[in-house]
Design goal:
0% strand, 141 residues, elongated, 5 helices, mainly alpha
């Protein structure tokens, strides 16, 4: 029964993590259009920081911890599909780290990237999520 509770917690955490990872770059798209030092820019800084610190970071930690428990208890470590999934989750975590860096850049008014850059970056978590879900559900190898 504990396994099922942890699985539910994992799914909830992944949903929260992904929601934040999909919303944060969208905020950055709009932030690039705001004049540095304007009220609008300062509001985006607060929104980005709070989203990262209050939702995305804790959700990622819970998703990782619950996921590792599930992999251990389920004996998934030896499965090839799990190795592929883990690779994609590590890449997603790296994207998370990049987004954390971008939040710091915006906070210090050091953003040098374009609106287009963040529009493209907004799609990366989606592609990774699709791969992860397909691997977990289909277990193709």
């Amino acid at each position: 029964m504990l396994y099922l509770w942890i699985k539910a917690l994992h799914i909830i955490a992944v949903i929260a993590w992904m929601a934040g990872m999909l919303y944060l770059p969208r905020l950055m798209v709009y932030h690039t259009m705001a004049q540095v030092g304007s009220d609008k820019s300062e509001t985006f800084k607060v929104m980005e920081r709070r989203l990262l610190k209050a939702i995305i970071n804790p959700a990622m930690i819970v998703a990782w911890l619950a996921g590792l428990y599930l992999a251990w208890e389920g004996g998934w470590y030896a499965e090839p599909w799990f190795h592929a999934k883990l690779t994609l989750v590590i890449i997603l975590s790296g994207v998370h780290g990049m987004m954390s860096r971008w939040v710091k850049d915006f906070a210090a008014d050091r953003n040098t990237r374009s609106t287009r850059y963040y529009r493209i970056a907004n799609e990366v978590p989606t592609v990774l999520m699709i791969g992860i879900v397909l691997l977990v559900v289909l277990k193709p190898f």
